[in-house]
Protein: Phytanoyl-CoA dioxygenase domain-containing protein 1
Organism: Oncorhynchus kisutch
Amino acid sequence: MVNIENPITSLLLHFNRDGYLVLDGLLSPAECDELRLRMGEIVDRMDVPEHCRIQFSTNHDEQLKTQGNADYFITSGDKIRFFFEKGVFDDKGDFTVPKECSLNKIGHALHAYEPLYKTATHSPKIQGIAKKLGLKSPVILQSMYIFKQPGIGGEVTPHQDATFLHTEPLGRVMGVWIALEDATLDNGCLWFIPGSHNNGITRRMVRTPEGTYPLTDFVGREATYDDKLFIPAPVKKGGVVLIEGEVVHKSEQNASEKSRHVYTFHIMESQETKWNPENW
C-alpha cells in the first residue's frame, strides 16, 4: 500500500507498472460512515417496479440475458437505479431477504444527483490524485455504490473496465474504488493481474443497432486467466484503489458475515480522447 502523500514519481511508478494502486487515508472513518448512512436512507425509500428487478452479473452470457436486454440498465447512465444479487426474489418478484440485504449495486449517476457523493467525487484529494497521475482534463463517466452483501455478495469475474468504457486511444479511463469498510480476503477484496494493462483488451460491450434485440452484445470474449497470476489488494476503510481501465481484476464471492461497501466511479482523460459511441 502506498501513502496518498507520496511524491508524484512514486505514485506514477506504481500505477504505470502494475495498472493499479492502493492508497490509504483518502477518507476519514466519519466521512465513510456519512456516505454509508446516506445510502441507507436511499435504500430505505427504494421503490423498484417489478419489471425492473433485474440481477447484476459480469458473466458474459448472463449479461446478455439480463442487463443487456434491459432498458432499465441501458438508460441508467444519468439516473440512480437499483441492481440486485441473485436469488433475492421469488417467482412472483417479491423479496426473499430484507431489501437492504438484496442489492448488488446502485448506479450510475450518484455523482450527479446526490450532493454528498458529488462532494466526495470532486473533492480536493481526488483532484490532487488526478493531477499527480497526469490527467489534464478529467471528466466523470459514471458512479456506483457496491454493497457486496454478507453471505450472498456475488463473485465479480475477471474483466477489464475498458470492455464497458471504451476509448480511442485506450488507457484513458481510471476507476476510483473507495472502501467504506475494510475490504479483506474474507469479504471480497479486489484481485489484480499486475501489468496486464499492457496487453490490450479482449472484448467490448457494444450497443446493437436500434430496434434489435438484445440491446447490447459483445465483440470478442474475455480471455481465460491463470488464477495464480492474481494478487489480492486488501484495503482499509477510507482507503482507495486506483484501477487502470485495461488491467484485469476480479473479486470473489463474499461468504463472510461482514459486508464490503464501496463507492466507486470512473474518470476519463477527455483531452485528445474519443469516447466510443457504441458504449452502453
Observations:
- The two ends are 33 Å apart (CA to CA).
- The longest strand covers residues 138-146.
- The CA atoms of residues 27 and 238 lie 4 Å apart.
- The chain is about 20% helix and 25% strand.
